[in-house]
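@channel anyone free to eyeball this complex?
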Amino acid sequence: MDLAFTKEEIAFREEVREFFKNNVPPETRRKLQEGRHLSKDEMVTWWRILNKKGWGVTHWPKEHGGTGWTTVQHYIFNEELQSYPAPQPLAFGVSMVGPVIYTFGNEKQKKEYLPRIASVDDWWCQGFSEPGSGSDLASLKTTAERRGDKWIINGQKTWTTLAQHADMIFCLCRTDKNAKKQMGISFIVFSMKSKGVTVRPIQTIDGGHEVNEVFFDDVEVPYENLIGEENKGWDYAKFLLGNERTGIARVGVSKERLRRIRALASKVESGGRPVIEDPAFREKLTACEIELKALELTQLRVVADEGKHGKGKPNPASSVLKIKGSEIQQTTTELLMEIIGPFAAPYDEHGDAGSNESMDWTAQIAPSYFNNRKVSIYGGSNEIQRNIISKAVLGL
Amino acid sequence: MDFDLSEEQRLLKESIDGLLTDAYDFDARKKYMKEKGGWSQALWGKLAEQGLLGLPFAETDGGFGAGAVETMIVMEALGKALVVEPYLATVVVAGGFLRHGGSAEQKAKYIPGIIDGSKTFGFAQLEKNSRYDLFDVVTTAKKKGDGWVIDGEKFVVLNGENADTLIVTARTKGGQRDKSGIGVFLVPANAKGVTKKGYPTQDGLHAADITFTNVEVGADAAIGDPENGLPLIERVADEARIALCAEAVGAMDESLKETVEYIKTRKQFGVAIGSFQSLQHRAADMFVALEQARSMSMFATMASDFSDAKERSSAVAAAKVQVGKSLKFVGQQSIQLHGGIGMTMEAKIGHYFKRLTMIENTLGDTDYHLRRVSEGGGLLA
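replying in thread with the prediction:
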């Protein structure tokens, strides 16, 4: 047992840090630190810088542009990226549909889609959830009917993150109504510009616009846009959701936020002294730091295990990551709320999309607190995670 | 970075797990607790035979030169089996004082007795008003000729009634809460002026309150610098805390296993109660608490070799916080999920709960260590 990084790993971290320092646009970094949303341009600009460096799709196989890094290097890269902070690669393309395509897609699909994911020529979004299908995803109703060499797609998806920017969607569609619900689903990709696709924004409680409803009204899609085999879509969906086990803890994000909390709490006064000097506040902050340290170690255990024994049999501790990671993220936003107290109240109607930045750093704290309630809901709610632990780990 | 055990460590784990599976089931434990002094000399002898009592000592002192990971492995196994024998007091604490502070003569005099299992120790540190502050010492050691005279009262000395030798913290200079002026002394338990009031503890161990009245010891009784013993005491206390974290992880691990097994078999309303989601989610939360504690136990184990004492203390305190929180949750919920049967002396689960509860209050509870980390500037820096 040895928890220290090797010399090579430490050097690698320095290299990554140095690259971020010299290449992340300062405005992008500042916005992330302040919890503001980035414009499409800001995100794409950064991802293209990353891709030019060869770090756009780090965990893909080398033949498709991956790096061939060890699991520990991936861990270090993600941690540094999150804690710098810089925008993480767009998960829908890089971590979700990309691996499905290079694992189950045919040669033509690999050639057509993968390079455009890496270069961010295509912005992908995810068509999984539906109004009636949340945690019970397999009950989805959107249909794809085969008509000659086309699919005709009808139905509705929801919670489609950043669909307003998207060029492409990967979609779970019911292709066999008579099969048992998991068995009749196919994985189909198509252009968001297709006729019959309508995107309607959903405004979330923080006032932001991240998610959308997407309607399909007799959308015609070439048959060849089916990934893998017909009616095997559920398997690919499970592969996709299980693929990114460790990033979900978002340890780097919480680290960065805790650093910011310490800095702000040393500046903001309450009761004639900086907030950080209030023992009650400081102990809450410390308790959160300890939880995060424990989570970081738990994550490293999973990472080391995957590095050594492959991804075949996940370390049982990996189920802890989503639950604890989301709880800690939420605690950090609560601590920020405590620091500003009554000054959380003013609401900037224009949000950061309106780029009304006349308000100072306090502007995004309450919205960020409201927004972060999502992290224990998405990606398999924490209740679903507990189901997974009790069944898969404890055998209940 | 590597969380796996080495081949030798794996063998060590197999050997102690094997020994305890054979010799330390719940009934055997009950039997051992009824023996003289409240624990089994025979079992202690077996631990000695397998070399477990000599693990951390240098090879030149007759030991195996094992490190913190080996102690973690042993303590976790002891926690799983709810072992009542005085490993912590003797091998970890007394062994720690001798290894880190003992003179060549002291090592030669005391370590062989630990390794062969013939001698055990007690750590007389806690005082009426000291609570968890190791530097809060009223007991005095006054110079007399070449030697020392010790006066004072110590409480809840684990293995205090049976120990052959007591390791006593005593003030040689300064006031009650001064950080300097504290010494560490080896005192024969049968020395003139030592009176012991022994009793069983809540978790089935044995302890004693001990009064020292004009107890005279020689110059060779002092371990390390008698006027500046605090850094040594802190180091050994940290090693004891690390060991306690590992013991707690073992006990939690087994508590969760017992509980899951129980709710799989216990039937109500015609089904196993483990089929109810409210119980499944509780068990899942217990698993999360256990894994977080396990991670911090490993972290603390690694920290025991940190050269910077402040860094080490902060890591160990953080681990004690996480383990303290986790053990309370796992311990309490183990009882809850067992229902009525969990309330009985007959069921093993309650004994895990009691041991875990006592671990939280040994050498600093959760709040105490949280305050320490907090006042030290947090854990991020």
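from a first look: Chain A touches chain B through 50 residues (CB under 8 Å).
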